[in-house]
Amino acid sequence: MASRRDCLLIGSAGFAGLTLADVLRADHRAGTGSSFKGVIHVHLDGGPPQLDTIDPKPLAPAEIRGEFSAIDTAVPGLQLCEHLPRLAAMADRFNWIRSLVGSAGAHNAFQCQSGFDEKDLQSSGGRPALGCVVSKLASSMADQVPSFVDLMQGRPLVRNSARPGFLGPAYQPFRPDLSQMFPRELEPGMKGELARLGTDHQTSLTLHAELNFHRLYDRQHLLAALDGFRREVDGSGMMSAMDRFGQQAASILTSGRLAEALDLDREDPRTLARYHLDASSSTEEHYTSEGPIAAKKFLLARRLIEAGVRCVSLSLSDFDTHSNNFGRMRLLLPVLDVGLSALVCDLEERGLLEDVLIVAWGEFGRTPRIDPKTAGRHHWPQVGPAILAGGHFRMGQVIGQTDREAAVPVSRPVHYKDVFATTYQHLGIDPHRTTLSDPQGRPQHLLDAGTPLRELV
Questions:
Q1: Would you state the pLDDT for residue 22?
Q2: Does 58 or 180 have the greater pLDDT score?
Q3: pLDDT in tens, 262-276
């Protein structure tokens, strides 16, 4: 009899037509709990403005409330920005955190990937991202899909936010090249950073045409023989780690499952239409901002989760609106509105929503007062917004409250580590008891602080 894990390796012999959704539905009919738990991290790259997203202040002075109106939602008393109408209509399927605190003030996604400042344990390689932790705890070299796929581009990739840290390269995420699918120009300084990364930060999804499975198998054994003596003197274990990643990559690439999940031509046109957003003819579009097609990043995340990937990260750029905040938000907020609402509906219809936790947030909020010279909002680490959905948690709640200018929390501050404690709880992992060894052999807890959000249970 096939194990449940065999069923998740869709595309293996005898299970070619079986999807993860089929397995979860079978679990439901049988009355057994699902052992698959997934996470989708949506990084609102640059820092989303709390006042212009989920915490509008319609009674504040114009220089604070801005140009947008507030609209009512499916949750009594909750108002959102007028450019989020789909999310407003289904607000009872989300939790709205208005009091996110503890920002490190850094312009990267690392805190949104781990809960920690990027410099924490820097001498040992740094803290690993949550997806890399999942790869360490729940993956094997025989997996036909990776545990962690990083779809993040731009600033998150340049700053290497989804890094394995002290776990080493064996647990790095799979990073497909999405530059042709979702073109986005980088700022000049970031182009230099990306160039210095080289070409090994992305993972090819296809084998060379002349390298079939049998040749690949022979090549692996040859390399293992040639490199054996080097591994014997490699005290750091780095070579063995790279061998592990290489073996897993070979398994994933020969299965073709990951490449198929990233091929939107295989998707039902009716589902594709759900993620469609009409292109704007506005001249206000900023060259570093996402275009309307970026809503399909959310569809890629769903396809990866359905294929068996446990952690997916995607980014939506560019919320770093030091100038022309409102012109740029008119273009970017509809992408978030369409993509996030479609993702939740899509997962729900496929029986996946209760097994997948979605977290959408950024590295900080933005200034309550609008800069009169640039019409922008600047960095504001004091408080920021976050949106949660799925995960078999209670939804339809507003958590935390800010003052009349959305400048500081006045009730229920929520730290990044509280959200990560909640995320680990969803995955069935106790972050305060579970440890991983750093290169010096010292046990490191997954979190050193943070409490699961009591409102969700």
A1: 54
A2: 58
A3: 999 999 999 999 999
Backbone φ and ψ of 367, nearest 5°: -55, 135
Measured CA distances, 116 to 51, 159, 219 (Å): 25, 14, 40
Q: Which alpha helices (DSSP H) does 394-455 contain, by range?
A: 416-426
Residues 454 and 424: beta-carbon distance below 8 Å: no
- Domain assignment present for residue 240? The answer is no
- Name the band, by pLDDT with cuts 50, 70 and 90, for residue 211: very low
The whole domain housing 153 covers 37-205+256-456
Do the domain assignments include residue 233?
Answer: no
Q: Would you say residue 117 lies in a domain?
A: yes
Contacts of 17 by beta carbon, 8 Å cutoff, 6+ apart = none
DSSP 196-208: HHTTTTS---S--
Q: At what angle do helices 130-138 and 416-426 cross, to 10 degrees?
A: 20
- At residue 93, the 3 state secondary structure works out as helix
pTM of the model: 0.86
Among 200-209, 240-249, 379-388, which stretch is predicted with the lowest mean pLDDT? 200-209
Vertex 106, ends 312 and 324: CA angle to 5°? 90
CATH number where 192 lies: 3.40.720.10
**Domain-located, residue 211:** no
Number of domains within the chain: 1
